Amino acid sequence: MYDNTEPKIYIVGYLAHNVTDKFGRLLLVEGAPMTDNMIQKLKNRRISFRLSEENAGKTVDTLQHLPVNDSNSPFKVPEKIDKKFENFNLESVMNASKYLNILLKEMRNDSFLGNNLKALSQGQSATYSHSINVAILSVAIAEKMQLPQASLQEVSIGALLHDIGKMLLPPDVLREVSRMDDGQEMLYQQHPRIGADLLAADKLPLGIYLTVQQHHEKYSGGGYPYGIKEDTININACIVSVANVFDRVTSGIYQRNSLTPTEAIDRIRSGKGLDYHPLVVDLFVSLFKKVPQVVC
Hints:
By secondary structure, the chain is mostly helical. The protein folds into two domains: 1-66, no CATH class; 72-285, Orthogonal Bundle (Hypothetical protein af1432), CATH 1.10.3210.10. Helices cover 46% and strands 6% of the residues. The chain has a three-stranded antiparallel sheet. A two-stranded antiparallel sheet has the order 1-7. Strands 3-4 form a two-stranded antiparallel ribbon. It is globular and about 60 Å long. It comes from Pelosinus fermentans B4. Keywords: Hydrolase. One of its GO terms (molecular function) is hydrolase activity. Residues 105-296 form the HD-GYP domain.
């Protein structure tokens, strides 16, 4: 997907099954191409695995042009999108969905991105559904902002993988998101950094890496994991931050008392210039069919 110049890579074989760690967290999916380096890392962690002999022994220019071997892959926006999108301009939502479908097909043919997206969808289906929603909203905002094509692709991939770091969190932390203790909260707040570090294993554009790393930073400071603010936060991360909050607070999966879309947009507007980039908030609000009046 990205044209990175690298030496030829020898594929030892392909995983014959999904690989999980001792906590049951999905690390690699069936069909993932395996190199000597990847095999050694699994052995160092004492993680058992089995390779398929089919197509083994190949030499390729890069891993990223190998197909993802799964006919039932999740590389498609659901035909029936979330009901909350009925509150948005239909043309903007449909255009964003079409763009994502094209991008997801490209990601399917990128071993690194495809494997991570499959691992997220199979290991944490709720997080994956959330990520699709966040990506649709992020693309719609980015198109309103008239970002160049390269930046649009970066914010889209960053949105799809913004929560990839959650795959490496202890399971009990994810089960208790709505009522974490201080220790669990500290661990949870590391998922953007963990996700960015995971993606740093491949030579991806900086905009993708920073989107994942900074999507919980606040415009006026005080966010996590680094507490940076204003223009030091990548604009992609500012876009995903707003999209992420909207979908999270309107989804019963993440909190017991979810908000209506109208209540959610009101909360986001109240955080304009504090938690969220002012321009991003304005563009996000403009996507709604009927914008609620601000109560003074």
